[in-house]
Write a structure and sequence with these properties.
Blueprint lengths: L3 H10 L4 E4 L5 E6 L3 E8 L2 E7 L1 E6 L2 E5 L3 E5 L3 E8 L6 E7 L2 H11 L17 E4 L2 H13 L3 H20 L4 H9 L3 H14 L7 H7 L4 H12 L3 H20 L3 H7 L5 H12 L6 H5 L1
Antiparallel strand pairs: 1-2, 2-9, 3-8, 4-7, 4-9, 5-6, 5-8, 7-10
Helix pairs in contact: 1-3, 2-4, 2-5, 3-4, 5-6, 7-8, 9-10, 10-11
Length: about 290
């Protein structure tokens, strides 16, 4: 159920559809006044908190529906296919909080040993996870939104609210997954390090063996853990990242398909065009029109 105070605080800050930046670089508000059909999106490491409505993020054979009763945690960078339920009368309203692992580790250090004890096997399927929205988390969200009305309060009180939100996630049922990613000690955390390399260097000729070495794993083990976390093989994942980056270039900069293909690491323009159309359902030349 939508909390009236949360909705009121959100609407004062974001009255137009789309993404609205705030005084905090890692906090973005998003509003949709109409249903958004399934489309590919790349989520950076973040928390997704809903004020009103619901959204479903699909990751291969798994789906995560987050709403006013559940929040989504994405500990690493993950390519989803997302669809949003919304109407003009009841728009979808959400708050995205980027994960600052330096702050998360500070909280873990304060909590001490046992704060990040993990359940065997859980982090093998932790590309993203849902947890239950609690009253303390709602209260922290409200304080965050209220602080965003002024730069000074955002930089002081807003940052404190973000810190509390991290703590609430860590204290949740699956908080050990976020803790594990922050500590960098589990197999999942090592896959996260490889994911960051892939997102930083997607246009390079990345080699699975080298990525496995980054994660300090054998190629077989890396492949198994990677697919468990993302539902994709490393090669499939890299392809999706390149295609999404290319789509962004086509839409934002109006580049020719061949130029965008080269910039994201494709050697063959024809192969790029085939894979782009297979993935998005339209040709690269239609990208700007489709996204308009």
């Amino acid at each position: 159920m939508t909390d009236p105070a949360l909705r009121s605080a959100f609407v004062r800050l974001a009255q137009s559809d789309g993404a609205t930046p705030t005084f905090l670089n890692n906090v973005t508000l998003y509003r949709a006044g109409a249903p958004v059909p399934k489309n590919p999106l790349v989520y950076n490491a973040c928390l997704c908190l809903v004020v009103q409505g619901r959204k479903t993020a699909h990751l291969s054979d798994r789906s995560f529906t987050y709403d006013t009763g559940h929040y989504l945690v994405v500990p690493a960078v993950v390519p989803f296919e997302c669809e949003t339920a919304a109407t003009r009368e009841e728009p979808f309203l959400s708050v995205t909080v980027g994960i600052d692992y330096l702050v998360v580790r500070e909280i873990l250090d304060t909590l001490g040993s046992g704060a990040d004890a993990e359940a065997d096997g859980t982090d093998r399927h932790a590309g993203a996870f849902l947890d239950t929205m609690t009253e303390p988390m709602q209260n922290a969200m409200l304080r965050l939104l209220q602080s965003l009305e002024s730069r000074e309060e955002a930089l002081i009180l807003g940052r404190q609210a973000v810190r509390e939100i991290y703590y609430r996630v860590l204290a949740g049922r699956q908080g050990h997954i976020l803790a594990s990613a922050a500590r960098g000690e589990s197999a999942y955390a090592r896959v996260v390090s490889a994911l960051r390399v892939m997102h930083d260097s997607y246009s390079s000729q990345l080699d699975v063996t080298a990525l496995a070495e980054t994660a300090n794993m054998s190629v077989r083990s890396f492949h198994d853990h990677f697919k468990a976390a993302t539902s994709l093989s490393p090669v499939q994942y890299l392809k999706r990242i390149r295609l999404e980056k290319a789509r962004q270039l086509l839409v934002a900069q109006g580049l020719q398909a061949g130029v965008a293909a080269h910039m994201v690491g494709y050697e063959s323009s024809s192969q790029f065009s085939r894979e782009f159309k297979r993935h998005f359902g339209y040709a690269p030349s239609e990208a700007a029109e489709v996204r308009a």
